[in-house]
Design brief:
Chain A has about 110 residues and is mainly β. Chain A contains no helices and 11 strands. In chain A, about 0% of the residues lie in helices and about 50% in strands. The chains are: A mainly beta (about 110), B mainly beta (about 110).
Chain lengths: ~110, ~110
């Protein structure tokens, strides 16, 4: 596609449930990033993929969060046993390679009730 | 998590006025980037700075990478209504690919 696509755009889930958020990067982009943006804050880094491997997952807040990119394109961010504090906009970005401009998707707004 | 110190937090200006915003850090950054975010959208890159002391312009936007590598500013000249949005500074440290963002500055332009 022309840009980074994230689905769903909105997700409401109950506390304790499992959710998956999907990111389709720009075709040919080898680097993929996940960020989380809480209300009134800047995005905060979660994880960075170069190809299929997670090159830096230091931003994942705890072991309830996990992300995969099995074929080096689409990525899924998985959150287990969701908590109300997980409510935020989850942003995905991709870049042609490391050290090149990253383009952001529109984000998935996750609300845990 | 770590965030850059961005100020001011918000500004209300009249169309045609100039506006300045800045970002500081207690530690050194190797790149400084300025993004704009509209409601319901992801951030869009405006200007990227790669060298200490670098001054770069993009249309009505001018940004500088501070000589100490711990600060940056962004100026917008002759503001127009479509400049409304939230502006973020961001940067890379060391060899890390992750971006550290400021809290953002909300700009309102009155026509």
């Amino acid at each position: 596609g022309a840009g980074v696509s994230q689905t769903p755009s909105n997700k409401v889930t109950e506390k304790g449930k499992y959710v998956e958020l999907r990111c389709d990067p720009i075709s040919g982009h080898t680097a993929l990033y996940w960020y989380r943006q809480s209300l009134g804050q800047g995005p905060e880094f979660l994880i960075y993929f170069q190809g299929t491997g997670a090159a830096d997952d230091s931003g994942l807040p705890n072991d309830r969060f996990f992300a995969v990119r099995p074929e080096g394109s689409v990525s899924t961010l998985k959150i287990q046993r969701t908590e109300r504090g997980d409510s935020a906009v989850y942003l995905c970005a991709s870049s042609l390679d490391r050290d090149t401009e990253a383009f952001f998707g529109q984000g998935t707004r996750l609300t845990v009730v | 998590g770590q965030q850059l110190n961005q100020s001011p937090q918000s500004m209300f200006i009249q169309e045609g006025e100039d506006v300045s915003m800045n970002c500081t850090s207690s530690s050194i950054f190797n790149t400084w980037l300025w993004y704009k975010q509209d409601p319901g959208e992801g951030p869009v890159l405006l200007i990227a700075l790669y060298k200490a002391g670098e001054l770069t312009s993009n249309g009505r936007l001018t940004a500088q990478f501070g000589i100490t590598r711990k600060d940056s500013f962004l100026n917008i000249s002759a503001s127009i209504p479509s400049d409304v949005g939230i502006y973020f500074c961001a940067g890379h440290q060391g060899g890390s690919e992750k971006l550290v963002f400021g809290k953002g500055m909300k700009l309102t332009v009155n026509p």
